[in-house]
Amino acid sequence: MVQTVFTGLLGQATAVDLLNQAIRQARIAPAYLFAGPSGVGRRLAALRFAECLLQDDHAHLSAALRRRIEARNHPDLLWVEPTYLHKGKPVTVAEAVELDLKRKSPPQIRLEQIREIARFLSRPTLEAQRAVVVLEGAETMAESPANGLLKTLEEPGAATLILLAEDSARLLPTIISRCQTIPFRRLSQETMTVILQQTGHTSILQRPDILAMAQGSPGQAIAAWEQLNTIPEEIIAAVSNPPTNLRAALDLARQVSKEMDIESQLWLVDYLQQVTWEQQRSADPLQALEQARRHLRRFVQPRLVWEVTLMQFVQS
């Protein structure tokens, strides 16, 4: 069973081999860092690895236990995701969508969530020999929660922590040093095609702009496709062709800032960078868009950001 634990995780031979070796040799580290782009299988690998760690016998994983783990319904498993703050309480991305919240900043791992991990690990396990904590978006931690996690990593007890980070350079070096890093790579076009076909997203294969944005990540391709379908067609059409005068630039800036939340605007920056590069093959507009991204992340007034950015397109 050990050899087939990670069946379905395509294109990640190095990660699978390292994790299989740990399972075979019964040498499980206190903490792992699954580092690499989003949408290439890190979450699936964490789920499958957690299944191994939470069963007593690696030779058999019951369907019932797998369903409980997949539903995050196991007393010795804590799955932590980046959150927004809504009325003083953390709200996951899925919950924010369900509540139709207007999101003004990207989600992040918060200090209270790190404290929850510490409380979770302070009690004895109920069913498994070890507790498992999966922390998605570890790179979104600010300094205070990062320092709190560092204390937990120093004395995790009978537990294994699995950190998922898209950009490990944003993590404290002391956190990285306490984890065994498992590298995840972008996938080949052939593997991308297989996964998109398996998941019923064959229509994406007809969109070279979306595939180019994804850069070897089927998850990012699916997310980009879904995001594209939420943006008004007139905005996509307008931004795909640079405004020809200042009035058009100002009107488009007003429309984008009014009708799209910050996360959608950040995605639009990515989309514009791809479209602009294909059209112009020039670095200048890409730099203007990158500056817009930095300003949006620093909570500069969005309408002003887009006005300045789109006016540069007119001048160029």
Explain the overall architecture.
- Helices cover 53% and strands 10% of the residues.
- The protein has helices at 13-24, 42-54, 63-70, 93-99, 111-122, 143-154, 173-177, 189-198, 208-214, 218-228, 233-240, 246-259, 262-280, 283-297, 302-315, and strands spanning 31-35, 77-80, 83-86, 89-92, 131-135, 159-165, 180-183.
- It is globular, with a radius of gyration of 22 Å.
- It is built from 15 helices and 7 strands.
- α9 (208-214) packs across α10 (218-228), α12 packs antiparallel against α15 (302-315) and α13 runs antiparallel to α14 (283-297).
- The termini are far apart.
- It has 316 residues and is α/β, with parallel strands linked by helices.
- A 5-stranded parallel β-sheet has the order 2-5-6-1-7, sandwiched between helices. A two-stranded antiparallel ribbon has the order 3-4.
- The mean pLDDT is 90.
- It folds into 3 domains: 2-183, P-loop containing nucleotide triphosphate hydrolases (Rossmann fold, 3-Layer(aba) Sandwich); 189-228; 233-315.
- The longest helix has 19 residues, at 262-280.
